[in-house]
Every structure is written in C-alpha cells, then in structure tokens.
Amino acid sequence: MQTVICMKWGTRYGAEFVNRLNSAVQRNTARPTQLVCLTDDPSGIDEAVRCEPIPVINLPDDLALTPWRKLVLWQDGLAGLVGDVLFLDLDLVITGNLDEMFDYEPGRFCVIENWTQPGKGIGNTSCFRWRIGTHTHIFDKLETEQERIVSTYRIEQVYISREVTDMVFWPELWCASFKHTLLPKWPLNFFKVPALPQETKIVAFTGKPDQDEAAVGKWPVKSAWKHLYKHVRPTPWIAEHW
User: Which of 4, 27, 45, 108 has the greatest number of CB atoms lying within 10 Å of its CB?
Assistant: First the structure.
C-alpha cells in the first residue's frame, strides 16, 4: 500500500480540496494507494480518506497556522505509518502518474527545487517524499531550539533543506509552478493560455490564484493597479485534472 499524506487546517481550503486530491491520487496511481489527511476538522471529507488529528507542535501563536506546522511530519511514528510517504499540499493539481514518485531514489528525501531560488539548494515542500522515522531531529530540534531556528531560517523549507543531508530534487519537469513556470510572461499572459508539459505530474498553485480560480481565468487582487499585470486566461486543463 502506497501512502500519500496531506494536511488541512483553518478555513482557506475546505473538505472538497481533500476529496478532489484523493480522487486525483486514485486516478493517477496503478498500485493500491491511500490518502491520509492530518486535519483539525474532518467534517465533509470522504470516508475513503483516512483522517488523523494534527500532532501537537510547539510554535508561537504567529506561526501556529503557517507552513511551519508541517514540521509535525518529521515526528517518529507519525500516525503509525512506515516506509516512504509522499506529501502533497492541497493547493496543487495532479497531472501525471504518481507511482514513479515512489520509485524515484527510494529511501531519500525527494523534493521540488524551489522555482524562485534555483541553484541555492532549497527545496519547495509543496510535494516531497521521505521515509517515516528519518531526520526526526528536524522536529525534535524545533521543539527545543524554536527561537533560534525560526529567527535563523524564517521559512520552514529553508530549515528543512539545510538539515537534510541526503536531499535530492525531483526531475525538473515533474513538478511545475503554475505562476512561475507555466504562466506566460507579461504581457503574453493576457493572450496565451498556460500550456501543460506532457512530463509534468504536479502543478502547484502557491499563493493566488487557486486551482478553481485559474481554471476560469480569475486572479483575485487587492489593489486595482495589479490588474495591469496579474492576469490569467481561462485554463481548461485544470478542470480536466483537478
């Protein structure tokens, strides 16, 4: 049994994001695969998804609902899981086979090379795979050295990248950023629909727009002048895969 894990807390992403993720996981795996969701509210999530409470983590109030919370994944014995587990954020679309992501560099920490920091050795944790019980010092050190770690690294994926010695990046085309790699540059984004490379397995929608927004060509912005450059054409392939 292959295991994919996600996390849902707060109100930005509802149960439908978990349910869509599970449907996409099942469509894009040939082997038996389960989705485990660590969540503070399992209501509305399909029974086919195994829901578990989010483990306790020692974080200050201003970081308690930020991606730093994902460091609970590095606990030993997480949710009784074993072996290599694939983590997926809720703000992504699966567009290709995931079985290969379990076969790639088994036992190692595999992660996206952060699109905005190429060559810096920093992973983007929208999609990563690790072996349960390895690198548990990432969680343990945060519990005892929280102030130093947060002030030194500021972003949790930088901390992880500096602590894992056997980190390896996914093949470049497997994981794409909708905004940073697929969206045509201004002003072409007003005229061209973002193209989906055939090799891509994961498309991440960090920040805005979300998947449902980009699918219909909507990019919410808070200031009117940003409409001059923040624009996306309706993108049909999102709805086809999401």
Answer: 4
